[in-house]
Amino acid sequence: MKTYFYIFLFGIVLCSSITINSYGQNLSTEGDDFWVGFLQNWDVGPNNPIILEIYISANDSTRASIEMPLKSAFHAIDTMVLPDQTLRLEIPTDLAMSTPANSSQNGIHITTDKDVSVYAMNKRQYSADMAVVLPTYTLGNEYVAVSQWEDGNRNENRNSDSEFLIVGVEDNTLIEIIPTYLTRDSRPAGIPFQISLNKGQTYFIRAGGDLTGTKINAVANTESECKRFAVFAGNMYT
Asked: What are phi and psi of 156, to 5 degrees?
């Protein structure tokens, strides 16, 4: 049986321990500002297309705006969310789904006038995989990836890769990554490397083995202290 999971990974660890207690209180899955990105799903062909969707629900009527600020081909969506109704929005797969290229501009920004809940779905036939998207103010700057790689899958494991996606929510975000397995772009296990992301930029990692335990931490730079970002993790096929 085919199963696939799409997990939102969330951590709150600040560079300064002084403010952890006050920052960690009153966090919620509801908010008015969100960033999300989509992992790569196994594309089995045109007869079974991959569909990317965002769901928004609210207690009160509110305006919602969905943008991909770094993708000019994406037309911003301005709409209303009504109480007791879940709004479903389809996002073009060719613009939003991660690809083997590491760096991209696939970050999706969702803003509303009032608090809402947001979910992201990555689906095709026999694969319907949903994540709760946490609001920007709850995001942290230190994460540990949770993923999976399973031997014995179809096509000699060619679609079994574990994967994670980092979404920048602030400009000039310096991030150190320590993978637990050799990545598809030849980053060796246990060897740290750094990337820099601006708001809306994404960085995608795949591996032919389990990336669980990979550390993804913000690094203070000359301009500011550690910055927040979002991480999504999972795998292509189990």
From this structure: 55, 40
